[in-house]
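Note to self: keep these together.
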Amino acid sequence: MNANLEQMTVKPKQGDETFHSDGKQLGFTLQDFWRWGVSDLVSNATRGRLAEFIVAKALGVQTEAVRDEWGAFDLMTSTGLKIEVKSAAYIQSWAQRDYSTILFSTPKTRVWNPETNETSNEPRRQADVYVFALLAHKDKATLDPLDVHQWRFFILPTRVLDQRTRSQHSITLKSLEPLSSGAISFGELKEAVQKVMLMAEGGAHPGPPPEFSLAQPL
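Structure:
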């Protein structure tokens, strides 16, 4: 392999880096681009990345490195637990006649290796657990994706998705609720993930017994 074409090592930017023309400063910065490009936190693409960041913070996952756009899964905890984050919202940036139907995408995937530029042959779900992040706030005037109180989270071990007899490509909120441990708040997420995984490893149904009910009203 040509040494100049190996995988790049990307370092986090600060935001004050300037655009230039062969060294001549042009008067605008990377932060200007961020402000222009990703200020709409409600848009599907940006909301998905934001959900990953919020879940990472809730679980204590390090975010100092650059997000891996093409990773086989979204996050890994300090104990090696692999997390996939899926997001949805009732409210969108555009004009709506009604709230959006909540549907989370859960397809099996093939792993792409950025070091070799090769893809695995067999599709499968790569994470140990799925965290479904719902921006549950329903008032457009006060919607604020930075307010973690407006989010609710649902947790499923991957094996539960693999064992479903219905769609293997997506799951509705109506189907997700009885399979999960209920709607979890940001502050409860870390403990809930740990408990759900312990129950799954023991072969128990991921739905909690009464003393483990962490559900919060939306």
